[in-house]
Amino acid sequence: MTDQKPSVLFVCVHNAGRSQMAAGWVRELAGDRVEVRSAGSIPAEQINPVAVEAMREVGIDITAEQPKILTTEAVQASDAVITMGCGDACPFFPGKRYEDWRLDDPAGQGIESVRPIRDEIKGRVEALLAEILGQ
Q1: Pfam families from the entry (predicted)?
Q2: What is the pLDDT of residues 18-52, one digit of tens each?
Q3: Annotation says 113 is catalytic
Q4: Coil, helix or strand for 11?
């Protein structure tokens, strides 16, 4: 029996909003029980400040995070790969669990529009964690 933690990679185009919020929720809800990564096919210069504000409202600080480029190594090192609109830019490896979460892009949106995206991501993360942690 292995004690290896399950690992999840969240991928969106800019790694500035949806994938960063999802990673923040995993860190908050699963603590150190799950290894979490996020990346983008075309990373932005910085995290979306409205996404940061939306997460701050629920007590989660993602200000220290930086958008990262999606690498083949990150996909290979992850048990589950959750994509959010990156389409064909996401590499595919047999044996990995893939899910595509269709979510509105928070880029250019105000806080009123980003809150429901944040809350939908939380629900999806909770369901994902229940599955991968067997809860």
Answers
A1: LMWPc (PF01451)
A2: 999 999 999 999 999 999 999 998 899 999 999 99
A3: no
A4: strand
Task: Measure Cα distances from 6 to 79, 107, 126, 128, 132 in Å.
Answer: 6, 30, 15, 11, 7
Give the pLDDT band of residue 90 (cuts 50, 70, 90).
low
In sign, the C-alpha dihedral spanning 105, 90, 100, 122 is negative
Catalytic residue among 8, 9, 11, 12: 12
User: Could you say which of 86, 103, 114, 128 is catalytic?
Assistant: 86
Mean pLDDT of the chain: 91
Catalytic pick from 11, 30, 70, 90? 90
Q: Give the CB-side neighbour count of residue 108, counting CA atoms within 13 A.
A: 3
- Annotated active-site residue 90? The verdict is yes
Q: What are the counts of helices (DSSP H) followed by strands (DSSP E) for the chain?
A: 4, 4
Residue holding tokens 């292995």? 2
